[in-house]
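Risk register update: the risk of archive-format incompatibility is retired. Evidence:
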Amino acid sequence: MFKLVESYGDKPADELPPLFTRILQNAILDWFRRQKTRNQHLSNFSDLAEAGDEDFDPLDVLEAEDSAIGRDQPLAALEQTEAMTAIEDALEKLPFRQRQAFLLRYWEDLDTAETAAVMGCSEGSVKTHCSRAVQALQGLLRQKGISL
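Archived output:
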C-alpha cells in the first residue's frame, strides 16, 4: 500500500486498483523467489540436531562437517575448492552492473528495493541484471562442467 501511495499518489482513483494488484503480485513473487533461493542454499539448524538433544550447538556440527571434508574426504574438498574457484572466475567475467546486482541480491541478501537503492536504479533494472547474471553464470559454469 505504501508503494502505491509513494509512487502513484498522483494517478486518478480509477487507475489505482490495477496498480495495487500489480504491486502486490510483484511483492508476493519477490518473496517466493527469495524463499526459493534461501532454501536452496541453507538448511535449518534444527535439522542438524538429534531428537532430544538440548545442548545442541549448530556451529559444532558445521565445524565438524567442514573439517571432515578436508581431512576425511580429500576428493570432495578438492571438488569444492575447484567449484568455488570456477564460480569466482565466472563472477569476474560478468559485466559490472550484473555482478553488482547478483552479489547484492544473493550474497548480501538484500531485497530488490534495497539493491535498487544501492545501485541507484529501478527495481526492474535490478531484476533484469540479476536474471542476466544468473543466465550468464549458468552458461559459464556449464562450460567448465559444473551444473547447478
